[in-house]
Amino acid sequence: MYEMERRLAGEGHGLIAGTDEAGRGPLAGPVVAAAVILDPEDPIEGLNDSKKLTPKRRDFLFEQIQERARAVAIAAAGPRRIERENILRASLNAMAEAVARLGVPVGHLLIDGNKNVPSGVAQTPVVSGDSKCACIAAASIIAKVARDRLMERFDRRFPQYGFAHHKGYPTRDHLEALRSHGPCFLHRRTFNGVPE
């Protein structure tokens, strides 16, 4: 998992950051992006694509990353911004914002996916990067856990939608709640399945 980061660092690229997002597919809530710079002298075991980890394992690794990484930052794009920019552009912009918030000069950026982010930092997109690069995997975990916790808080304000259970994804229960109650301000009104 650390091979690409070590190679780039060995080539003199300086600090290597990974970035990823969580929440492109839901009908409600923000897309949350994270950027992480790991400490190569203190590797964290068990990093992987956040979707392949149990919630308990994600929570454990979230804390490990927060404690042991050199830098961690989060940014988000809310529903109105997603509606204005479209989900892809909002996701890429949020990832760029997370990188900018790291507070240290990034020498090279590794991005999950096949697109560059709007940043002047040298960068390499890596398809399935959250399964291949430790720093991207770490960013995927930070983004996923942060977004899940946010949706659990929103559930207390809007219990009729069941956000704590489905996190805004288009499950049968969520679609039924939308039909019964209509959308709230968290819903992305340009997404199929969200009524006007």
Keywords:
Nucleotidyltransferase, domain 5; alpha/beta; 5-stranded mixed beta sheet; 196 residues; 7 helices; single chain; globular
How is this structure best described in words?
This protein has 196 residues and is α/β, with parallel strands linked by helices. The protein has one domain (3-181): Ribonuclease H-like superfamily/Ribonuclease H (Nucleotidyltransferase, domain 5), CATH 3.30.420. It is 41% helix and 15% strand. The protein has seven helices and five strands; from the N terminus they run H-E-E-H-E-H-H-E-E-H-H-H. The chain has helices spanning 3-10, 55-68, 79-85, 87-100, 134-157, 163-166, 172-181; strands spanning 16-22, 31-37, 71-77, 108-112, 123-126. The protein has a five-stranded mixed β-sheet.
Question: What's the arrangement of secondary structure elements?
Answer:
Layout: H1 3-10, E1 16-22, E2 31-37, H2 55-68, E3 71-77, H3 79-85, H4 87-100, E4 108-112, E5 123-126, H5 134-157, H6 163-166, H7 172-181
Helix pairs in contact: 2-5, 3-4
